[in-house]
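Key idea: predict the complex, not the pieces.
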Amino acid sequence: MSKNTVGSLAELVGGQVQGDPALEITGVNDLRLAKSGEICFVRDQKYIELARKSGAGALLVHETLDVEAVQVVVKDVHAAFAKIALHFHPVPRAEEHFIHPSAEIDPAAVIDQPVQIGAMAVIEANVQIGAGTVIRSGCVLAEGSRLGTDCLLYPRVVLYAGVQLGNRVVVHAGSVIGSDGFGYASDEGRWLKLPQLGSVLIEDDVEIGANTTIDRATLGLTRIGPRSKLDNLIHVGHNCDFGADNAVAGFSAFSGSTIMGNRVNCAGHTVSAGHLKVADDVRIGGNSVIYGDVEEPGDYIGYPLQKKSRWGRTLHILNRLVEMQEKLRGLVRDKEESGKGKSE
Amino acid sequence: MSKNTVGSLAELVGGQVQGDPALEITGVNDLRLAKSGEICFVRDQKYIELARKSGAGALLVHETLDVEAVQVVVKDVHAAFAKIALHFHPVPRAEEHFIHPSAEIDPAAVIDQPVQIGAMAVIEANVQIGAGTVIRSGCVLAEGSRLGTDCLLYPRVVLYAGVQLGNRVVVHAGSVIGSDGFGYASDEGRWLKLPQLGSVLIEDDVEIGANTTIDRATLGLTRIGPRSKLDNLIHVGHNCDFGADNAVAGFSAFSGSTIMGNRVNCAGHTVSAGHLKVADDVRIGGNSVIYGDVEEPGDYIGYPLQKKSRWGRTLHILNRLVEMQEKLRGLVRDKEESGKGKSE
Amino acid sequence: MSKNTVGSLAELVGGQVQGDPALEITGVNDLRLAKSGEICFVRDQKYIELARKSGAGALLVHETLDVEAVQVVVKDVHAAFAKIALHFHPVPRAEEHFIHPSAEIDPAAVIDQPVQIGAMAVIEANVQIGAGTVIRSGCVLAEGSRLGTDCLLYPRVVLYAGVQLGNRVVVHAGSVIGSDGFGYASDEGRWLKLPQLGSVLIEDDVEIGANTTIDRATLGLTRIGPRSKLDNLIHVGHNCDFGADNAVAGFSAFSGSTIMGNRVNCAGHTVSAGHLKVADDVRIGGNSVIYGDVEEPGDYIGYPLQKKSRWGRTLHILNRLVEMQEKLRGLVRDKEESGKGKSE
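Result:
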């Protein structure tokens, strides 16, 4: 990597430099921890004291601040910081071809160059792996699974037979993609397995967290749309279909045939009852249960799911349910007493 | 597999053929995707238009429909479809004996023939594996674990020492069976581990999803009864005892010593507080919390768990708690005003 | 192990013997299952009939009971039982140095003696492993991860690069430590990854269950404090900081930057919204959602989180919400009728 300066980084993020553009920058950091060769971001004026005390050599700011450090003025400090952090710490890709001698590669696998395959990895017949892809130790890619270019699989990821990943897909350790959907028919009280004959398609630029499970479709495809991000310990049932640019935080679960639009956000511990549709641009707060279609964009939260503004009041009432009941009892008592009074 | 015809499949499911029984059938499919050599099911009259448009050569129906395709009339179309799908796509079993050369098999393991053991699998001392069983790549079977005949372990399943599986047990990738139960004694504010000395018994025909964990008992056995089905990301605590023919959908958790009867169904995201009993033939809806014994068969749901019919109303009220509070406030205000009126 | 007698075990736990201290004891068991050479505990007088029928040779009791067996009187029977059970079944540690020939050890790893490393384990460059540590089959320890002495990693644990474990840390199968935190910046509707540059510190004597995931910090450290115990299927987000002696039961999730004090207990299925603090000595009941700081020690439970005493009443009201609404409707109806009455 060639030398990075405030000027070159400002160019990267389309920012205006206030101060010396020739200052060399070697990395990113937090305002509290930064040293003179590092660049930080200042979210807003509230952080100005922290910014003044910071050892950072350069600051990403939304508007010029009254501080000594060199400043780069940008429209969106958070996005600019991510771009610069990614510049210093890009997602790993295979630059040189290397297959660990302990990896077990079926001769009928089709592997482009360069790729990196770690120790103890198992690549079965007819697997396809695109150039630039990194498969870490202990992954198992079952028969006929396909990966595009520049993917990154952390240790011990399992792809079931036929699962397909696009380009630049990242999957964290222990995740399982393509396991059977939970489908059984009741045959006079006994469960008959419904063979799960579909597959899973993970589209370009998706990132999936650790120990997440994505089931194959009964027939057809379970799909995670391009650029969507899923966190750890998420269960995606069979025939779910997620659109583009979704973000789902950890410890969430989507029953079969949950159909999500584009740019849907789910905070942690969101659960869907399945067989329902969520519109584009819906944002769902944490600990929500989606029971039915969500047809309008906007902010929702709760159990049952409500508009966000409304849920705040509902939660407040849940917190005061004891007092509410006492008031109600008081009214009922008054009424009974007044009733007695009348009958006397 | 010999040629399958509508007639041979009708015989398999005990159905009556309407049309040409000699029509060859090569697989199952969805009404929307089916081709002429495929058989589908029609759930009820609502799907008749789809059935008419379908390219399917044959249809499983509950009663004769006014369509062109050959029909097989059966009592239960869903069960019949599962039987035919399983006929075309049976659960894999080992037909020929094959142990991958990279697998690590302890000489003291007792392995019947034929079995299939995948790459990088680890089979420790005194493990027993019955004929027909398939162990996929990267599984670890710790000392003394025992598997019956015709089991199927997907990649990277871990069986702890001494865990016992019956016959035809299927375990999906990444699941862990026999990990220590969560047992500690408090010793003046510090946790002392209670060694978990029991084991786990998974009975015949159980299927377990991906990344599920089933803890060993403190003493005695954690048990999953015959033909029960567990989905992905389920936590089964120590000393749980599940009866026969249960079905538990994904992202559920059962604290220690949850005792479930037979034919218990739990929808997704069901949680049990543990040290409680659930009777036979109980069906629990999604997102429920089981806090105490469930003594009568029937349909339950909610938090707290209620009869299903009641929970629908409760959920409706939760949704309208804001209006309920407003009404209550109105009444309290009226009362206060009328009180003032009287005192004036 | 030398012969154990009631006397030697009483000495171990600081108890007083009633009866023959020379009686040999070979193990621990449950009152219902125990044989004459085994020791059990009797929680209180309620269990006296079970204790009388038990075949146990010796009993740990809080006060002398009217039974035939030899008794060891101790202050805390549960803690004493744990100490004796651990004496008979200590957590495994490496006594002799053994590295399985199939394990893949980078020459630049620094491995003390004795350690045990199982089959198919992968130890990358600059990993440090302290004496006495046991690494079971199929674990992957990525570059620069460090383990202290006497740790125990069950099969298929993954440590990401740079993760640090103290001494006597136990991690159950399938857990992942150090995966990327869920951090993205929105760049005009598209997600930009925020590289997760921090790490994870697991302090001495921590135990972690199966298939749990602990994310690395964005910058700095995600920390689990000394002697804390985490169960199965727990998600710990980036930059969480858990103090000492915590206990978190299974199927729980902590969003990023949850700061927990010391001696915090969380029952199963506890969820934290993140960016909040929980004080020392807080006990949180199952199925709770922590939405904000918990500043005072004590017992809490619920959604929204409440003092435990209050939540019992709230849950009771939730259970009777239908009747509550009916009463309210009755009052509203009365008022309307009386209003009509007046206007007539």
